[in-house]
Amino acid sequence: MxxxxxxxxxxxxxxxxxxxxxxxxxxxxxxxxxxGEWTEAxxxxxxxxxxxxxxxDLVDARDFAAFNSTYVKHMEIWQAEAEGVSEDLPxxxxxxxxxxxxxxxxxxxxxxxxxxxxCRRLKLVRKLDWKEIEKMLKED
Length: 140
Prior knowledge:
By secondary structure, the protein is α+β, with helices and mostly antiparallel strands.
């Protein structure tokens, strides 16, 4: 997808002490988000072809947040705009390695959810509450 074209996506973030940051990623790979502002992946990751991940499908965003809520207590799902979208994803990397600045592949049974995309830039537009998410999913 070209840089100027925008796609509506869903982004799962962690609300960590009032800061919206990457879910499950910290340290050298963390991305901090400010609603309404364009955000990019850390340069060292972007140079290696790893960009911000998000979901095309709200069901996958909800399932990701619900499954990982054991590890991260304050997950939020946001409607977002994405630019530079790719559905051709590289191998999934170990989040703990990424956080330390190391690219280490996850075992082969760790798979991206089907609607996962990577984007060169992402802007959080609107936080969705859990009741609204369930209502939106029932309407589909």
